[in-house]
Amino acid sequence: MTPHRHCIVCWTPIPLDRDPAICRADECAKINVKREASRKRFTVMLYLFPAIALVLAFLSAV
Ligand SMILES: [Zn+2]
User: pTM of whole model > 0.70?
Assistant: First the structure.
């Protein structure tokens, strides 16, 4: 068995050097794009919410 990775959408074996880690299927490319977008949104929220909480804490302190 040769080293390989799997499509992150459908788990089809794909070459190790494939980037992004998806197979050739259009559907997987679409799903990957959607996932990337929601992951970015999640990362933004992760920083945004503590920032807002800090501002609110600061405002209520003054
Ligand atoms: Zn796939």
Answer: no
